[in-house]
Write a structure and sequence with these properties.
The protein is α/β, with parallel strands linked by helices. The chain is built from 20 helices and eleven strands. Helix 2 links the parallel strand 2 and strand 3. It is globular and about 70 Å long.
Length: about 575
């Protein structure tokens, strides 16, 4: 007597590289495929409106793909633990397969099911399908999880390469008696009153076939210019794969192995690393969407909410062109360029002084790619309360960001040509207010303090005066999949690193605005530096702005540890966290 295999689809709505489906095909028994809409289990978060729209169409695509192979997709609604157990007994399943989830409520459901189904004599197996590395496999030397991206990604790259993607099963066979199923339309995932999804329909085609086409288009047409143009919202150089990965229409293993051999793919692959970092963080911090990862940030004095300001931000009516363009793009398409996401989030948190959780809730409802890890993780990154976060005093100036990344006003004119032109707040004044609020709780936030200069004491012979050894020269950035690591370089001559070829010819020294007398006596470029005085050029990675910064640190006196500095022009590296 046949004992069917039950495959439970979740955030893996694909046939190719689906380990659970592959295991069922290898078992060579009739197959029952099921998707459960679970909004009732304890702790499960109800999907936002844009995500529900995508889910409807992605399920329709999956259902058609399975139907062509002789398998029906069963749709059921309710607490997943109860629904799956009832269905397994109903069809007389001999094995139940699924791909793993990493949120705490979902893991609790899965653990309970494994115990009850195995106790009933069924084979139960789960598989790795949505992350390149399982969260418990990437740990520090002391066995803890990482809280900073650079060492995390370095550790990932030191592990064995991600497995090769599995091919789509050649043959599948469904059961002769198909279990009862809900009608997809009865779930009412699509908006009707009003129907606000016209822009989503114009922008996206959900489903695995469209996802694979988009991946190939990106690799052939956009990846070569990705590092150069991805920060420009009007350039159209981003992959647009985030909703495909969120719903599992593509696996990260497929994306990794398709891209890894392409020239210039290093920056793009590191974006997959940032996605991994977010999910690993959620695994270790289940309350990511509601609690500050850094509890000392709980002391921040958020003022009473101004509903008018929140409403203006949500509907793109702040009078700040880049912010309004981003929010209107989000409402129309269910998507926003990543650079603009950072700007709009920074404006809400640091100019309007509105709690990041309210912004996260709005993005959860309006983004087609919102997931329980990346959405809150990136909001906490901007707020300064998260892992590897930008410090709170890092404020994205929307006017400067627009001049830098949308210099011809193409993006703003497309999405916010008719937006208000009078800002609802003064950017400079609100930035000062935000920093003042930060200063009120400064003692409670020691780890969020402003960064100090790297202290290097130089002697006149170009050695480290403290350790009495030659100073290590700067390392140029390496064209690989590895995000550039922090490094310190020293130049006693006063020359900028660009003059030695580290950054290329576009990085130039900012004008020296010191008094003429001081410049003549102490400035770089003097033929004979004064006695007991040296100069250091230090380059370091600044995650708060995705840039290398170059600073000149001046050692003023051999027996008095006083330092002065001037900040040089920031040099873009093309890395942008997602």
């Amino acid at each position: 007597m046949a004992s069917p295999s039950l495959v439970w689809f979740r955030d893996d709505l694909r046939l190719a590289d689906n380990p659970a489906l592959h295991a069922a095909a290898e078992r060579d028994e009739p197959l029952v495929a099921v998707f459960v809409l679970d909004e009732e289990s304890e702790g499960m978060r109800r999907l936002g409106g844009a995500a529900r729209w995508w889910l409807h169409h992605s399920l329709h695509s999956l259902r058609e793909g399975l139907r062509e192979r002789g398998v029906a997709l069963v749709l059921r609604r309710g607490p997943a633990g109860r629904v799956i157990e009832e269905l397994a007994h109903e069809v007389g399943a001999g094995a139940v397969y699924w791909n793993r989830r990493y949120g705490a409520p979902a893991r609790a459901v899965d653990a309970g099911l494994k115990s009850s189904l195995r106790a009933a004599g069924m084979e139960v197996s789960s598989f790795s399908a949505s992350l390149l590395h399982e969260p418990w496999t990437v740990t520090t030397g002391s066995g803890t999880h990482y809280s900073v991206f650079t060492p995390f990604w370095r550790a990932c790259l030191s592990l064995p390469a991600p497995r090769s993607p599995l091919t789509e099963p050649r043959t599948l066979a469904g059961t002769t008696a198909v279990p009862a199923s809900d009608a997809l339309d009865d779930w009412a995932l699509l908006p009707t009153a009003p129907d606000w999804a016209g822009g989503l329909r114009d922008t996206w085609e959900p489903g695995e076939p469209a996802a694979r086409r988009r991946l190939q288009e990106f690799l052939a047409e956009d990846l070569p210019s990705y590092d150069r143009a991805r920060d420009e919202p009007a350039a159209g150089a981003t992959s647009l794969l985030s909703p495909r990965l969120r719903w599992g229409e593509l696996s990260p293993f497929t994306v990794w192995h398709e891209a890894v051999g392409v020239d210039g793919a290093g920056g793009f692959l590191s974006e997959l690393g940032w996605r991994e970092f977010a999910w690993h963080t959620l695994f270790h911090s289940p309350d990511l969407a509601t609690k500050n990862l850094r509890p000392e940030f709980d002391a921040f004095p958020w003022p009473p909410l101004d509903p008018a300001h929140l409403d203006a931000w949500q509907h793109g009516e702040t009078g700040v062109p880049l912010v309004d363009a981003g929010m209107r793009e989000l409402w129309h398409t269910g998507y926003m360029h990543n650079r603009v996401r950072m700007v709009t989030a920074s404006f809400l948190i640091k100019n309007l002084l509105i709690d990041w959780r309210l912004g996260e809730e709005w993005f959860w409802d309006t983004l087609v790619d919102a997931d329980e890890a990346n959405n809150p993780f990136n909001w906490q990154w901007v707020a300064g309360s998260g892992a590897d976060a930008a410090p709170y005093f890092r404020v994205f100036n929307p006017e400067l960001q627009a001049k830098k990344f949308d210099p011809q006003n193409l993006y703003v004119s497309r999405w916010a040509g008719d937006a208000p032109t009078e800002p609802i707040v003064d950017l400079a004044a609100t930035r000062k207010a935000a920093l003042a609020a930060y200063d009120e709780v400064g003692p409670a936030l020691p780890s969020l303090g402003r960064p100090a200069l790297p202290v290097v004491r130089m002697s006149e012979d170009g050695t480290d005066a403290v350790r009495n050894r030659p100073l290590r020269p700067s390392r140029p950035s390496r064209p690989s999949a590895v995000r550039p690591f922090p490094s310190y370089g020293c130049r006693r001559t006063g020359r900028m690193p660009c003059e030695t070829g580290l950054f290329g010819p576009t990085a130039v020294r900012a004008p020296d605005r010191r008094p003429a007398a001081g410049r003549e006596r102490r400035g770089p470029g003097t033929k004979k530096p004064p006695e007991n005085r040296g100069f250091v050029c230090a380059r370091y990675w600044d995650r708060t702005s995705d840039l290398f910064r170059v600073r000149e640190a001046r050692y003023r006196c051999a027996n008095r540890a006083r330092w002065g500095y001037s900040v040089f022009r920031e040099v873009a590296t093309g890395f942008e966290p997602v």
